[in-house]
Specification:
This protein is mainly alpha-helical. It contains eight helices and no strands.
């Protein structure tokens, strides 16, 4: 009886592995086929003019991605200018100045909640707060949305990086007469 049970388990394990491999291979083949078709048909069109030309009106052949690429670059730069300084300041506050204070606990909790919030929820919130009152779409709303998504990641990364610095190094800088802000930025 025991030998039959072991044989059945091994056979079931082999069958499930085979089916899983077959399913994975099928998915990979179809994804590879789609990628091949896109590359084979699209590589003829991609050139410098296509990347820099403006889009044409609907129904007119030609055009390019100039506006899309420029808009993406502007929104990313604006989001970085907004999100990185605020996130770094929050991370510095959390690791250096407010370690166990009540406000640091609230900021850390809010940052963790914001990090787990889906980007679509943040986008809808920014849409309600910025786009609806203005009455029209704006690249600034997209930049603010990206900045809000970026904020908890930068904050948490900054805090974790600063917590890696040993307390002895911080105390050494303070003992040498460096102001606390210089010790934080320099060490």
């Amino acid at each position: 009886m025991r030998e039959r049970s072991i044989w059945l388990r091994k056979w079931t394990d082999g069958a499930v592995r085979f089916i899983s491999m077959l399913a994975a291979l099928t998915g990979i083949i179809f994804l590879g086929w789609i990628l091949w078709v896109i590359l084979a048909r699209g590589v003829r069109v991609i050139n410098w003019e296509f990347l820099t030309a403006l889009p044409t009106p609907p129904g007119v052949p030609g055009g390019g991605l100039g506006n899309a690429i420029a808009g993406t670059a502007v929104m990313t730069i604006l989001a970085t200018v907004i999100g990185v300084p605020v996130g770094m300041l929050a991370g510095i506050f959390l690791s250096e100045f407010g370690r166990q204070s009540r406000i640091a606990t609230v900021v850390r909790f809010s940052s963790n909640i914001l990090m787990g919030t889906p980007s679509i929820i943040i986008g809808v919130f920014i849409y309600v707060v910025m786009v609806l009152p203005a009455g029209h779409f704006s690249g600034y709303a997209g930049a603010v949305s990206l900045a809000v998504i970026m904020l908890p990641v930068v904050s948490r990364t900054t805090e974790d990086m600063l917590l890696l610095v040993p307390n002895a190094v911080r105390e050494s800088a303070l003992a040498l007469g460096a102001p606390r802000w210089k010790a934080t930025l320099g060490v």
